[in-house]
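Technical note accompanying the year-one report. For the benefit of new consortium partners, we illustrate the data format agreed upon in the data management plan: each record pairs a sequence with a structure-token string. No post-processing was applied to the example shown here.
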Amino acid sequence: MAYIDFLSTLHKATSRDYIARMTEYPKARAIETAKEYGYDYWDGDRKFGYGGYSYDGRWRPVAEAMAKHYKLQPGDKILDVGCGKAFLLYEFTQVLPGLEVRGVDISEYAIEHAKEEIRASLSVANAKELPFADKSFDLVISLNTVHNLYCYDLEKALREIERVGKKHKYIVAESYRNEQEKVNLMCWVLTGECFFTPQEWQWWFDLCGYTGDHSFIYFE
């Protein structure tokens, strides 16, 4: 297991007003709307989620870096757990033609509005029960997803990711290293249920037998 950062450049490119996120609209109502994972979360007002999530090519460098690091080859199989609109999976197919990609997400809206080129490879499913056989994929990724689960489902999801991967696994989760980052995280996040330090996340990985790589997103 290694700490490998593929996402911080993307994460830091977005400016965030943490106080406004908490005070300009009732946070509890925003959370309730976000957790429907429908239009409002993906393409509605920013207070409910992404504020509009359309393809713009930003995931291409991530796909290139992952393909290089994991030495992917045509014919390899990739699964994205919590794929959303699957822009990253699409980029994988462009970076390395011949890859077989699959994606799952609990949001029907996201799957319906995913990149048309790979929509047939996507399905609605929950991370705690992946509809795939053991050791089905050469690379299993889950970016900014597992922290949205309650602890009892988080354990199931980590074990499922380990089960369906036969080679490489990579997870990104939101975390905090100090009290300021903890406050920022609590102000900003709408769908998160697990708020853990890096050390606590490592405890979860060890508990669940997760052997893949990981990194964390911090709200600095």
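Partners are asked to follow this layout when depositing records. The chain has ten helices and six strands.
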